[in-house]
Amino acid sequence: MTPQEFVADLFNPALSFLPRALLVALLSAAVCGVIGCYVVLRGMAFIGDAVAHAVFPGLAVAFVVGGNLVLGGAVAGVLTAVAVAVFSQNRRLREDSVIGVFFVAAFALGIVIISRSPGYSGSLQQFLFGSITGIPDEDVVVVAVATVGLLLVAFLFHKEFVAVTLDRESARALGLPVFALDLALYVMVSVAVVISVRTIGNILVLALLVTPAATARLLTDRLGVMMLLAPLVGGGSALVGLYLSWSVDLPTGGTIVLVATGFFLVAWALAPRHGLIARVAGRRRGRRPAMEAATPPP
Q1: What is the C-alpha to C-alpha distance for residues 213 and 35, in angstroms, rounded to an integer?
Q2: Average pLDDT over residues 199-215
Q3: Does the 3-284 domain belong in CATH 1.10.3470.10?
């Protein structure tokens, strides 16, 4: 399928699910790109993976009762994030231990709940791997509102989030509410994960949160530029991945992730300052003056 044919399908009334899937994928890429920058800088990719597990019981309950999956997943993710933030205050337990307990338990609860519903196998596959054909109009509205809300919160509290991300003790010494900011960030990650699950799936959603931000991290040293590049990388991955999956009949979520991974590998090799080629060239330039200095005069 040519790109022109793909564009024609996007405007085909009989394929109305396709532009909805693209819109949700682009919105998800935008919000995950911004929130993912905090995740990458803070080294909390494990939390993003755990949140993806935590939203599952909410998705399962919403599916069983016929409710909105996005809202159901958001409620479950937020409740689990609050539980982790509260229990992590006990100094006898490390934060990663509490996360491991609660988020895996939440995922197990989701499996138990959804196993009690008709059509268990098909619905489970949709949750885990995504489905471009199953995004209703109301979900598009919810995702759009959530995206605007998350980006607004990130903009208003950007300095505080950066301070806590880079140095928690200094942030606490400055009088910043570290616990409240941690909780807010957990909740933001939870909502970002939920709005991405319908397109890319529960298992693969971490890639949309981490891979574009990691790619942008290789391309720039400035956080502001990184937060602009990450959504662009994620959006490009969503567009190209959806095009390839629609053209060749491939799983949408997996294709988007592979395209994003391809962008990451290109940046890892070709980034102007931090890429493999630039680092190798820098070492060679560094060796040359040292060799010239060590060479005795004739």
Answers
A1: 9
A2: 80
A3: yes
